[in-house]
Each structure stands twice: as C-alpha cells, then as structure tokens.
Write a structure and sequence with these properties.
The complex is a heterodimer of chains A (493) and B (231).
Chain A lengths: L1 H15 L1 H5 L1 H33 L4 H23 L8 H4 L5 H13 L2 H22 L1 H28 L4 H20 L4 H14 L5 H20 L3 H5 L18 H16 L1 H14 L2 H4 L10 H20 L9 H6 L4 H22 L8 H26 L21 H23 L3 H17 L1 H24 L3
Chain B lengths: L1 E10 L2 E11 L5 E4 L6 H8 L7 E6 L2 E2 L10 E4 L11 H11 L4 H15 L15 H13 L5 E5 L7 H18 L2 E5 L3 H7 L2 E6 L2 E7 L4 H9 L2
Parallel strand pairs in B: 3-8, 3-9, 6-7, 7-8
Antiparallel strand pairs in B: 1-2, 1-4, 4-5, 9-10
Helix pairs in contact in B: 2-3, 3-4
The chains are: A mainly alpha (493), B alpha/beta (231).
C-alpha cells in the first residue's frame, strides 16, 4: 500500500517537475539521445547474440565472452561512478509521519535499482543468454546465467551507491579509482595476472556447478545489506543533507582584492566555482577537454588543416570559458537580488566577468602549446581559434547569458544535469562552432588554408580592439533585462 | 528623502500595489504592516529597483531608482536569503559587502566588533559557510550586512523572523541606537506588531496593495493596530 503511495508521489514529482515545462526543444533532444543509446544497445546485443561465435572463431565461445563481460563490468562501474545520480527519495517529507525507517530505506534502495544503466545491461545480456548460452548449455542454464549476470550488475550498482555516499567526488577519489583500474589493465596488458581470465574462469566454473550461481546473488545481497545498514545508521536529516561541513576553499586568491571592486567580483566567481558541486564537476571535466586534441591529432584520417581542426581548436580553448560565461549570471541567480541592489557598478561587474573569461582562455591556450608536437599548423589553428574565442565568443557568450533566466542549482553535479539550462544554450553553442568554420573553409577550398587561419585570428584581434564597445552593449542589455532575470531567478525550482 | 509617485504594479491583470503618493522623511523610522499578499515585499522590491514598475516612480534623494545607480551607496537592505552569498563564510561575505561599500579592512573589523553582541557569538569565527548556518544566524548575517557602511536608509523585510527572543530585543535596541547616533532611517516590514510599534515612528498599514492606514506612533498605536487586524 505504502509502496504505491511512494511510487505515486515519485511519478507526480517527475511529471510536475519544471524540467518538462522548460523547453520542448531540449526535451526532444534528450529523448532523442536516450532513444539512440537504447537503439544502439539493442543493435549491439543482437549482433553479439547472433554472431559472437563467428566473431571469435574459437572453441571457447562462451569463455571469451565472459572475459569481455569482465571488462564490461569495470566500465559499468566507472560510468556509474561518474554519471549515476544517487537514488534520493525526498525522505524529509516522510520522516515526521508514522512510517517505519526500514520501509523508507528499502524503498529508496529499490528505487536505485531501476536506472538507465541497469536497463542497458539487461538489454545487452538477454539475447546473448538465450541465443548463445542457451545453445551450448540449455535454456535453464541460460535463465540462471542471465540472473547471475544481472546480480553482478546490481552488485556494482549498490557498490557504487555505497562508495558515492561514503566519499565525495574529489580529485583524490577520482585519481584513486582511475589508478586502481589502470593497475588492473596494466597487469593484464603486461601479463602479470589476468583479471578477465579470473572472472571468466569463475563464470565457467559456475556453469559446471550450478550451486555456485549463488555467488552473484550473495554479493548482491551483501552490497544491498551494506547500503541498508549504512543508511539506517544515518537516517537523520543533518547527516544526510550535511554530511560534512564545507571548507572555505579558495581563500588563497586574496591578492585579487588588490584590484579593487573588479578584483572582488573576480574572486567571488573563483570561489563560486571552487565551492559548489556543480561548478566543481565542470572543473574536473576541463582537463579532459584540453586533452581532446590527443584523440584527433595523431589520427591520419583528419587532415591537420581541415575544418574539423578549427572546431577542435575552439573547443579546446573555449570549453571552460563557454561553460562559465553562458551561465555567468545564472550561477549567481540565488543572490541576484543582492547583486543588483548592491553598489557594485554594472560596468565593473561586466568587466570582471570578461577578465576571468579572458584569463581562462589564455591559460587553456598556454596549456595546449605542447600540441606543437603534432605540427606547426595545429599550433597556428589553436592560436587563431584562441584569438577568436577572446575577441568574438567571449562578448557573445556574455551577451546571451542574460537570456538564461533560470537560477543554477549549484549543489548537484553536472553530468546529465540539465537543470537551469535552456534552448538559448544550444542556440549560442551552435554559432560558436559554426562561425569560425564558415570563415575558414572558403580559404581552404581555394587552397589557401594558411590565409584562412590568419583571417580567423585577425577577426579575433580586430574584435578584441572593440571590446569596450561590446562591454557597453552587454551592460545596456543587462540593465534592460535585469528585472526579467531577477523574476526568473526568484522562482526556485 | 524617499518620494513615491503614482506607483503601480500588477501581475497578470491583478493590481498588487497602487500608491498614489507616499513620502518618507529623514530620521523617521517607517514601519510597514499588512497581511500576507498586502504588497509589503512588492513595495520594498520596487524601492530597491528589483522589479520594474508598471507606472510611476520611486525617487531616493531626488534620483529615480530605475535610472541611476548612485542611490545604492546610500542604502543598505536585506529582504530575504536572496541577499546572501551562501558559499561564502560570514567573514568573507562581510568583507565583500564592506568593500563594495568602500570600507577598508579596518573599518570592516571595527564594524564587526560592534556587532558582536547582536551575533551573540554565533556568526563569526565558526569556520562555517553561510549555507551551513541556521536560519536565525543567516538572518543575523543579512541584517548586519545591510547595516554596513553607515547607509542613510536601511530597508529590512521582516527582520524579526527566525530570530531568537534575545536577539529580537537586541535588534530593537540596535536599530534605535543606530537611528540616534547616525541619523539612519529604517524602513521595516513586520508581522510583529509589538516590535514594529516599538521601533517605528510612523506605521503604514497596507491592504490589497493600497495604503489603508497611516499612523504616527503614539501611546495607543498598538491598540489601534490590534483592533484593525482583529477581524
């Protein structure tokens, strides 16, 4: 009975969430992406089920699949660790009612079982179970096998939930986990030991002796139990909502204060980025985007002066800047009323934002100088695109930031988190990447790629000279739109 | 010092505030009372230029608030938690607000020393960020920030909310003291008739966006107010 009530509330919460009213285009995009992923998973699972024995051409068809599955579990662990959101039933609303603690916890945990990642695993394993395992071992074995694999997957699910509750995603934990997995892979690669052989051998043994299939069931129950006990001990509001007091991170940048009010505002933005969960996860992503070039530069398929390289260049030096500027005001939505009634002159406020963005682009450009290794033209493209970012995209992004009138909730991570984003986001991102390519490509087609790069950088430099004029434009726009923004920001979702 | 002319604001066709004329004199503490939805916060938001008026204007020292920024130096305000930067520690927040108001580090330190009694030792030196403070301590932080830099006018929306009884009494004393020593004018809204009658020299009752009563505080003000609200 109670469970139905909970499910009912959850569905209402999802249905009435402001996310649906926000933007049709964004929702269509999200549904589209989810649909593509699911379709790909179905396709892959059918491919594996029908032609795995042809792909491997070995006597041990199943064993080789188990080795693959072993690494799939590792991948699943990593992806879940970074992407999966913790199951949260808003228990605050229920704690004062006569409902048993254990009921709340069970419901919360069981809800955590149903997520996108578990669904993908179910799709991937089911056809294989009946087509391949069923062929070699019989249908009963296929059922048991499938159940076992899903219990392994669920073990990972609960392990991740527990680990994420236990430790916060910080640079330390991330490097620890990546280090451990790297070690696992390195050992296998160098032939010291083989994790995948070990797990495959275990599953093989389980096929021989069906009683062993209790192992995944047991690990699942263990992981579930650990979570249950962990939560039961901590089902007090203060421990869930404020597991630890935040430390005052970022107070070391005090020297910025010497630059007067502009320095104060810059310092405030830096603290904002360092102290909030959502902005912190953007910062963790930033190095990944800096390294983006490594995927494409060594690849012969992409010519080093193609239009795609322009795109990469904009991305490398512009990712963090765009993430910052597009929502420059929305990040401050929770205290916008304070800002616009405080005696900070709008002009200085705008300039502070532009300075921070400029610094970010310059640092990104500087850090990617070693790409010179892949040739002079890469360096030239990256320099030209950095100039384009500085001159044109910075003022453009800040200008359009006034159209984001939904306050960013900063206490949630950023992966798969679309709260506070809007169609404007996509409308700005698009020209940001298309525009430079459009400028460059005609030169490339006429056999003058170097001229194209120079023109692109030249545009950036020229625009840089007009920055005071742009700043004025942004200021006027902001003055005009601040009421609408304030109204939007006040609606906490 | 503050002059409101023909001010109107409506949301989806319903008028929430309609004030033909209202004047605030320097040194006269001004209280705003009224039931929920009477337009108190709307009036304060218009005063601080946080929302756009449909019609009319608010002038502070002769300047239209929607058209200039100078008045921001003469006014301190705390309406709600939207005036707190919650990822800063109280010290950092005071530092930031103080700097925007042109105070030196020494000024800020001296100001905070004076506020120690009002904080009752619970705001400073706790190594907590504002978002981890209790409602009451957040309220104290916001009120104190509004008082920084000796503003001519201080606007407080329901300042007595979530304060403990001792701090409420201290706030009353603090407001009176600042009014006397600096000549600061306070604009305060509250549901607490006792406190507002104690602190304010003039009380306006808002009802459905219009001025229903305009009382100079005297011996029987509290009785008048109680009689008005006892329906």
């Amino acid at each position: 009975m109670l469970a139905f009530q909970f499910i009912n509330h959850q569905m209402k919460q999802a249905r009435r969430s402001t996310i649906w009213q926000k933007s049709l285009a964004l929702n269509i995009l999200l549904i589209f992406v989810a649909f593509i992923l699911l379709a790909e998973a179905v396709g892959l699972s059918l491919l594996l089920a029908f032609s795995w024995h042809e792909i491997v051409k070995e006597s041990e068809v199943l064993t080789s699949f188990y080795q693959l599955a072993a690494w799939y579990f590792v991948g699943s662990f990593v992806i879940r660790f970074f992407m999966q959101q913790l199951p949260a039933l808003e228990i605050r609303h229920y704690q004062n009612l006569p409902i048993k603690k254990s009921t709340l916890i069970h419901f919360m945990l069981i809800k955590g079982k149903f997520n996108f990642f578990t669904l993908i695993s179910l799709i991937l394993f089911t056809p294989f179970a009946f087509k391949q395992v069923g062929y070699y071992e019989g249908t009963t074995a296929a059922w048991i096998w499938l159940a076992g694999m899903l219990f392994f997957e669920l073990t990972i699910n609960y392990l991740v939930i527990w680990l994420k509750k236990l430790m916060v995603t910080s640079l330390k934990t991330v490097s620890l986990i990546l280090g451990l997995i790297g070690l696992l892979a390195l050992g296998e690669y160098l032939g010291w030991y083989s994790y995948s052989d070990l797990l495959a051998a275990l599953i093989d043994a389980m096929m021989q002796n069906k009683i062993l299939w209790f192992i995944p069931l047991f690990t699942f129950m263990l992981a579930y139990g650990i979570n249950y006990r962990f939560l039961k001990q901590r089902l007090y509001l203060e421990e869930i909502s404020k597991a630890k007091t935040d430390t005052a991170f970022g107070s070391r940048f005090g020297y910025l204060q010497r630059f007067g009010i502009i320095g104060e505002v810059m310092l405030l933005d830096i603290k904002l980025f360092l102290r909030n969960k959502r902005t912190k996860s953007i910062l963790f992503l930033a190095p990944v985007f800096l390294a983006y070039g490594l995927i494409f530069y060594p690849n012969e398929e992409y010519s080093s002066d193609g239009g795609f390289m322009i795109f990469i260049g904009i991305f490398i030096s512009g990712f963090l800047m765009l993430s910052y500027l597009q929502y420059a005001f929305a990040y401050e939505g929770s205290y916008w009323d304070f800002l616009i009634s405080s005696p900070i002159p709008m002009r200085q406020y705008i300039r502070a934002k532009l300075y921070v963005a400029t610094l970010v682009v310059i640092v990104a450009w500087f850090l990617t100088l070693p790409y010179l290794y892949f040739g002079k033209s890469i360096l030239m493209i990256n320099t030209a695109t950095a100039l384009f970012n500085l001159g044109i995209l910075i003022p453009m992004a800040l200008f359009f930031a006034t159209y984001n009138k939904k306050a960013m909730m900063l206490n949630k991570g950023s992966a798969f988190n679309y709260q506070g984003t809007s169609t404007v986001h996509w409308l700005v991102m698009l020209p940001a990447f298309v525009l430079p390519t459009v400028i460059y490509m005609p030169f490339k087609w006429f056999g003058q790629p170097e001229t194209g790069i120079l023109v692109l950088g030249g545009f950036g430099l020229l625009a840089l000279a007009f920055r005071p004029a742009f700043a004025k434009l942004i200021e006027q726009n902001l003055m005009d739109r601040k009421y609408q923004m304030a109204e939007g920001f006040r609606e906490k979702n | 010092m503050i002059q409101i002319n023909d001010l109107k604001k409506s949301y989806s066709g319903i008028t929430v505030l309609n004030i033909p004329e209202l004047k605030f004199e320097k040194g006269v503490n001004f209280g705003l009372v009224g039931n929920n939805g009477a337009g108190k916060t709307t009036l304060f938001r218009l005063l601080l230029d946080l929302i756009r008026a449909d019609q009319g204007e608010v002038n502070i020292n002769g300047e239209n608030v929607a058209k200039s920024e100078n008045w921001k130096h003469q006014l301190g305000s705390y309406l709600d938690q939207g005036f707190l930067i919650d990822f800063l520690s109280p010290e950092e927040f005071f530092d930031f607000v103080g700097k925007t108001k042109g105070m030196s580090s020494g000024d800020i330190e001296a100001f905070l020393d004076n506020m120690q009694e009002f904080f009752s030792g619970e705001v400073l030196g706790r190594k907590k960020l504002i978002r981890n403070l209790s409602m009451g301590n957040q309220q104290k932080t916001g009120i104190a920030a509004a008082l920084m830099g000796n503003p001519e006018i201080v606007v407080l929306d329901e300042p007595f909310n979530s304060l403990d009884p001792t701090t409420q009494i201290r706030l009353v004393k603090l407001i009176k003291k600042i009014q006397e020593t600096n000549g600061t004018t306070f604009l305060i809204s509250s549901h607490d008739l006792n406190h507002i009658a104690e602190v304010c020299d003039r009380i306006v009752v808002l009802h459905e966006g219009e001025v229903a009563q305009d009382i100079i505080t005297g011996q029987d003000t509290l009785e008048t107010l109680k009689a008005y609200f006892a329906v």
